[in-house]
Amino acid sequence: MQPAVPDPPPMNGKLVIAPALSDAPIGVPARKNGAMSQPSTQGQVQHAQPSVGSIAAHRPHTLSAAVSDLDPDIDADLDAYDEDGQVGHDGQELPQGRFLDRERSWLAFNERVLELAEDPNTPLLERANFLAIFASNLDEFFMVRVAGLKRRIATGVATRSASGLQPREVLELIWNRSRELMARHAACYQEDVASGLADEGIHLVRWNELTEKEQSRLFTLFRQQIFPVLTPLAVDPAHPFPYISGLSLNLAVVVRNPVSGHTHFARVKVPPLLSRFLEASPQRYVPIEDVIAAPAHLAELFPGMEIQEHHMFRLTRNEDLEVEEDDAENLLQALEKELMRRRFGPPVRLEVEESIDRNVLDLLVRELKISEAEVYPLPGPLDLTGLFGIAALDRPELKYPKFIAGTHRDLAEVESASAPDIFAALRERDVLLHHPYDSFSTSVQAFLEQAAADPDVLAIKQTLYRTSGDSPIVDALIDAAESGKQVLVLVEIKARFDEQANIKWARKLEESGCHVVYGLVGLKTHCKLSLVVRQEGETLVRYSHVGTGNYHPKTARLYEDLGLLTAKQEVGADLSDLFNRLSGYSRRETYRRLLVAPKSLRDGLISRIEKEIQHHRAGRPAYVRIKVNSMVDEAVVDSLYRASQAGVPVDVWVRGICAVRPGVAGLSETIRVRSVLGRFLEHSRVFAFGNAGEPEVWIGSADMMHRNLDRRIEALVRVTDPAHRAALSRLLETGMSDTTASWHLGADGNWTRHALDPEGQPLRNVQEMLIDARRRRRGTAKP
């Protein structure tokens, strides 16, 4: 356990909070403790490509991003914030060192994912899934966050972080901490999960553990399906060192020419489109690289040569995109060009088998131009994102119990085979959706499909940040356009790692007659909005959906998200104004029931936090409760500190990174920070304020980060129905309760898992509670 942060001495009249010991660029002792789920892939074990992502997840088209959705967590957040001179509640300057380091906080988030894999109470295939999620998350962290930090150091633009660490200190912290976590990750697989799977009849074996019959069968498979797509690349004066693509598995082979006696180096790339684990016999799986590296198989690749040694390695590259929108005549073409350059980004991490020969490693380090600090020796097999395929095996007894969402009761009082009439339901009342507990397909998807088919609907306006490859949402919009409706679709083609897919869908939508726009120069459009305009008698009625998650039917079964369906005209008018801003030249900055970034969202939230201070001073009910993926915006964090100094209770439920130091005397004594991870990716954003006994609650797309509040179009909608406000308040209270399983953040930046009560009994799982509530409502609860 880390020692408590000592009370710092006053310096120049200021209180300076000393950094936690674990903020320093040294290794942190691993904490042995026992996020979300991956979709099932029936049949053959597939090679799942690494994800974005958190929770999330987390890429959406492979669904590994369903867990982390790292785009909201991992992007560069470089806006300057002058923490000096920020005044607290008492008029004194807020202390230095009050922000936790965001990189360390992100690594702590991924450690929480790892703890779920280490937890013996997690179903076994879900543990394998969490191991894959951890690996996928870390891949993107290096591709984006570490790569960006290295680039800024190299160009001399890096500055001291808000936590007080110099850029080089942050980089060393990342190297040391990630090395410890990767070692724990490998040990969890080797010593725990693999052996547990073997006890259940699922054997993950290496080549030398196969029977002679299994090896013979795989030799036939190698000759017929693997050998034809392999390309050995020699390295000699006539053959320069080959380009090594990011995240590819590679075989470094040393061969000897028996005639000349010379030794040579060659590289064999493991084909990424083949299955990562091959089934040698029923329920016995071997990594594909072991099959390629079998002595007889290497002899096929290098006939007449003596195979002296072979080693696996894997390289991570900078795969972030930089598109100069202001100078680009055509954003679509500029982005496509940049996508071609992405694969040639500089290296940021080299994973090697720990048994690698020193001479081979020296060659790789030299040719790849990577430092020793960026080399990660690990026990094989490398690249445990391949466990996504194992986790997808059809063994339901080794997974979380299956849950199928039902239709929201306000859309269909009694579920039947007929689709609910969404418009009729919304004329009666607003509908607050909570996915995945409420079905996305019979709510949001049905809303858009009904609008596309309804002859009285005149127009549909829609934002798309991410969607699936076989999207029924896109199909509905195309059907609407082809039937003569006015369809406006704002496609965010800069959605990280979904750029290529979104370009494809943008063109398909354009070809069908939709009006496709790409948002505003310099801003990503991240808000989740749908607007349907319908002719009803002599009037036009606007139906709206404002959500916290993407219009992605597949991840809607894995992400925890909220959405408001409403026929309230003030919301419809707000969405009309906002869409006009996105597609035209409107400069509207104020709305009726929306807070919209980059102009009004941060200021709107801070003003409400400040109002809670006034209510508390006057003795009126006051509190601040926030649920987000990330909480790192310094201006918002400072407003929470001021509220806490005034005595306002502040609860922060965060999935990923958090810069708040809770529980610091004189600064944040009334602030609590919790994190919940489980089978679903916690993804919703909720902002609730006591407001003198008339609670004010908002939901929407924005996380508390610079880039969300300054460089994105984000939208929050105010929830007005008293029952809906009460439901959201109960959700926040449950997530923050000491009787709910969660991680608690300490002032030193360490997270502590609370999964058992003092008697050793499991604490309540908020996700399972919500599942049980839906089952009881449908009469399918387990006894």
From TrEMBL:
Its cofactor is Mg(2+). The active site is at 526 (phosphohistidine intermediate). Residues 421-587, 594-756 form the Polyphosphate kinase C-terminal domain. An intermediate of this reaction is the autophosphorylated ppk in which a phosphate is covalently linked to a histidine residue through a N-P bond. This is Polyphosphate kinase. Catalyzes the reversible transfer of the terminal phosphate of ATP to form a long-chain polyphosphate (polyP). GO terms for molecular function: kinase activity. Pfam families: PP_kinase, PP_kinase_C, PP_kinase_C_1, PP_kinase_N. Keywords: ATP-binding, Kinase, Magnesium, Metal-binding, Nucleotide-binding, Phosphoprotein, Transferase. Belongs to the polyphosphate kinase 1 (PPK1) family. Its EC number is 2.7.4.1. It comes from Streptomyces rectiviolaceus. CDD domains: PLDc_PaPPK1_C1_like, PLDc_PaPPK1_C2_like. Mg(2+) binds at residues 466, 496. It catalyses: [phosphate](n) + ATP = [phosphate](n+1) + ADP. ATP binds at residues 137, 559, 655, 683. Residues 99-205 form the Polyphosphate kinase N-terminal domain. Residues 214-389 form the Polyphosphate kinase middle domain.
